[in-house]
Amino acid sequence: MASVELINVTKIYDNQVVAVKEANLEIKDREFAVLVGPSGCGKSTLLRMIAGLEEISKGEILIDGKVVNDVPPKNRDIAMVFQNYALYPHMTVFENMAFGLKLRRIPKEEIRKRVNDAAEILHIKDYLDRKPKMLSGGQRQRVAVGRAIVRNPKVFLFDEPLSNLDAKLRVQMRIEINRLYNRLNTTMIYVTHDQVEAMTMGTKIVVLKDGVIQQVDSPLNLYNAPVNRFVAGFIGSPAMNFFSGRLERNGGLFFVSELFRIELPESIARKFSSENRDIVLGVRPENIAEVGAPAGDNFSAGQTILVDVVEPIGNEIFLYFRDSSQSYCMRMPPDHVYKPGQNISVVLNLSKLYFFDSETGLCIA
Amino acid sequence: MNRSRRTPPLFVSLRLGLSYLLLVSLSLVFLTPILWMISSSLHSLEGVFAVPFRWIPEKLHWENYRDAMTLIPFGRYLLNTTVIAFAVIVGTVFSSTLVAYGFSRFRFWGRDKLFALCIATMMLPGQVTMIPLYVFFARLGWVDTFLPLIVPAFFGSPFYIFLLRQFFLSIPYEYDEAALLDGASRFRIYWQIILPLARPAIATVVVFSFMGAWNDFFNPLIYINSFEKATLTLGLNSLKAQIIGSGQTQWHILMAASVLVLIPNLIVFFLAQRHFIKGINVGGLRG
Ligand SMILES: Nc1ncnc2c1ncn2[C@@H]1O[C@H](COP(=O)(O)OP(=O)(O)O)[C@@H](O)[C@H]1O
Ligand SMILES: [Mg+2]
Question: Which residues of B touch A86 (CB under 8 A)?
């Protein structure tokens, strides 16, 4: 039970790689925070600094309000689940889970009880006498989680714990870890590169890119109000479409790109300080619709596109169309047949448009 | 597997046959002296030199073994040698693993240069340090004790350090990290994680250091003077020098004694073989 706070935390490795840059973050007691970002963005580094496995180059990390920069890992009262589990190969499942407890001189009876309780929760009671190499990937994963929970630590750290499991097991374990969080009600920090995992698990999501924290927010806020183009493109699947174009004044204010010419309502136009400039329009696949499907004045005028690829998923259809440089996606209801090469007229939901500065990538409106 | 499936079966069996032929004939070459030793140990003295040599004696002279054990204080020497060899194994394994652990797990200033220096001492021939070492141990008053044979083992041996360091490096550092978070000290990680995982490498070190100590003739010869502190190798030597009756070395008895000295080597080797053939095992990580 503890809060974790990062103040201007920077990590520079010996080879001068800046893995984390000026990170500021506050994770409250009992919060489930997820660090998400593409591979190599510094997630593990950040987590390992919290664990005390990696020295902090600059800044401070506080656990429960106390600076822990110089506190060795074993005194931080933290447990971590490693990406490849790191179960001690020469110990049985029971010994693996009991190891940390023995070191803390917890009485034998208590150890047995705690290990058995954890094994019960994680459905690994039948494997307590086995060595790790006799377990499947999913079972090893559970043991790794078990080794963490028997210790009753103040903070749980997970470093991509599901990335070695197959897709089905991953979803199942995701749900179980969620359940575990509700049950343990302890501070958890979870690292993943998978945005779906992040969205479904965290109450607070931290998006990282190139060692820099981009945005810290709830899942819905990240989805609805991304601060920049990176976050907008990273969160959501299929990803948001980005159309490069210009703002042009011609009576009303228009967004003009290779495919589109859209008149923007006054409510949006008001937000731009300058006109006749390059800009990037972001639209999520579900905010593009076929003319006639939805009704209302919140939609743009019809724009003609050429269907490139059709992907029927079952409950919906992904339609892809392209301009001279890239491909875009839109989600359609499943009850209509589309063919590649077909021209259709589409409208954009004007209340769900995002505009990004074409240079800085910041969200303007 | 794929390759052999594509090559014609006749060719495969031919190649297999040839390699067996080569292996068997080579091992015969290596085994001949040992077989000769065993055979001679059961001959009479005349039988040892009979032409042609009879590999299987007409009469088995088992009493050679009894004589070998009574002509010299065999039991005393066996005990001495066992004590020394055991201490050398303990010393070598403990010190070399500890140093190798340091080289493989800690980052400190000048580590790699120090390691190179450690390896470089392998290039020093023993003869170079022999006299200074003798003088050193003489000043300590250790001549004619077991200490000069045992104590150096507690200061690590460069080859074993090298061997163990390479093995330790192949043990994923995640185990150390997991143990650190579990609350283990660095020494405990060495003791409870690294050592158990390094069993194959340690088995190798045990075998080599045992054989080194057991078969060492030179160092006991230099440092041991007293009759009752001698080792088996010194005992063999004195047996060779013993002249009984005919005024000739009793080769048949000497060979019987040699067989007795050889046996523990074989036992240790076969006991340890199981471990170092099994190789590395990293079942705790994925895959
Ligand atoms: N021990 C290290 N020494 C040098 N550079 C490292 C080390 N560990 C990670 N890095 C670098 O730091 C960056 C961030 O790595 P990491 O935190 O592992 O990313 P992630 O977990 O998000 O994939 C990467 O560019 C990586 O190459
Ligand atoms: Mg990582």
Answer: 172, 174-175, 177-178, 284-285
